[in-house]
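hey can u check if this looks right to u? its 369 residues, i copy pasted from the old doc so theres a chance i mangled smth
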Amino acid sequence: MKSPALQVVERIRPDVRAMHAYVVQEAQGMVKLDAMENPHSLPLDLQAKLGQRLGAVALNRYPAGRINDLRDALASYAGLPEGFGLVLGNGSDELISLLALACAIPPDPGNGFKKPVVLAPLPGFVMYAMSAQLQGLDFVGVPLTAAFELDEVAMLAAIAKHRPAITYLAYPNNPTANLWDDAVMARIVEAVGAQGGLVVIDEAYQPFAARSYHDRLSQHGHVLLLRTLSKFGLAGVRLGYLIGPEAITAELDKVRPPYNISVLNCEAALFALEHQDLFEAQAQDVCAQRALIFEALAKLPQVQAFPSDANMLLVRVPDAQKAFDGMAARGVLVKNVSKMHPLLSQCLRLTVGTASENHLMLTALKASL
């Protein structure tokens, strides 16, 4: 007879049982350069001020009006266009899930029981596909070119064939770290709009990018801008936000859990926005360090480094697993993405750290090739 636990497990959806959970690499005692985190911590004086503010937060109360203060602060920080609204999420991951949930229209026999489709270029952020599967949508991935550019012909063909409910364009992309060609991007956005779909421009790495889609938002009624404070410097706070026409954000807000932003997360985010000059300076330092790393990688004959507009660099080495293991043995943790997609064969993803961390990373990489 099966145990009660196994009987309960059989009640869980078979596709969920077949999935792998998102794995966070063990990083204790390592130079942690695997997750695109801001390597800079708060100065001691600001740590003390933040601690004092968090200590005064009413933990015995549900989040209330202070959330509206945060929404207003983010609207000001992001430059919310007239007629646009803003939805808060527990990280951008939650917002991606809420988008799938809102668009998960049950299959209709009139259209052959086809599920709504989420479409995105590959390789890309894994949560687009995972959220689609968990909410009962189909995911269609369109491979990038060998140079990690959008394959315009393939993207337009997929849009015409699948009529996606949601199309994601990460700008810059993860893990390739590049921005898309603006003209190609414009034609894809137009094609999605022509068939009544939603385009989500995911700007998680906007603090490090040379360009943003923000100025083009008002030109469309079907485009949303997804951002997060994780790369801004608050990965541990878990706060994302979605900007779009009020008619769309009002609907998405209906599927948002009522208290999805904790009072501590809210207060920490408000504190950070009050000191945004500090975080902007940290982003500038990351960009300067990124340039130095790219220059150093260009001198390694066995390494191909790809241009980056994010706080990471994608590199191709002769043997990604050997290099990854060698770097880990030397106390440096990066991300081996070589098995995520055929286009990423023998690739590692390196997060940009502090000057000292980057020196250790480069030294470990050279020794591990």
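The chain has a mean pLDDT of 94.
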